């Protein structure tokens, strides 16, 4: 009888909670899940100011101040936000010609980027020129397939990093393009290029299996796609495992939404890229369930302009 009375009391209490709207199954589910917002740029090429109002295609677009306003807006609205860049920070405006990258790196530090990789134009002031700007960076430069031994960059970059966001552990690594034939040898010095597919498989497996990362992101300056057999993000996605997202650069490709590619194991790797010159800011919203399986819930490539709303 006591057991029956206890059951009836608990059932009655549960019914009361339901009638009062106080048995929050949806709230409990929400607590078990977590949203992660990833913002990204690539190939900004020293465009710190918006394009001039001269009737051109991109007039009024871009600019680091307008980008900063968008990033700040998202950070106010979302709890867990990451900001990345996929290389070619330098070269393209008089800012670089005059200051050799200092204002670009300082701007990224003020925007609190979480990490960046290197592009071929980041060697335009020489490898020592890039190294001189690193004291202005409060974010890591990630590049896993360049060996900087016996160069001014030795020990000043990292192959990968891990970032904690709430309950999630995010692994991030960088890949650079073949420099020979693209960059003067005098600019990259003793830098040794390592096969990016082999490197990616090694690093991504380490991040996923040994570091137990819930998500692995590659910051790639390989380029989106080529007509030749040159290694691109599309090739990288197909020939690797354990990469969840490739944030790309180099080819200045404007993707309106990320492209899904099946990897070696038949699982989906997303590729995204947002053009060049800081004209757009990529946004990817992932929701992780209680088992930390992720689903892309929203993807936007937003034009950076003073009138931008609803980001």
Taken in chain order, the helices and strands follow as HHEHEHHEHEEEHEHEHEEEEE
Report the portion of residues in β strands.
15-25%
Query: How many helices does DSSP assign?
Result: 9
- Which structural class best describes the helix and strand composition? alpha/beta
Strand numbers in spatial order across the main sheet: 5-6-8-9-11-10
Low-confidence segments, given as residue ranges, are 6-28
CATH architect. name of the largest domain: 4-Layer Sandwich
Could you please say which CATH topology of the largest domain applies here? Answer: Purple Acid Phosphatase, chain A, domain 2
Average pLDDT number: 91
Number of strands: 13
> At the fourth CATH level, what is the homologous superfamily of the largest domain?
Metallo-dependent phosphatases
> What profile does the largest beta sheet have?
6 strands, mixed
Query: Rg to the nearest angstrom?
Result: 23 Å
Helix proportion of residues, in percent? 25-40%
Anisotropy-based shape? globular
First CA to last CA: what distance? 60 Å
Question: What's the number of domains?
Answer: 2
* CATH C-level category of the largest domain: Alpha Beta
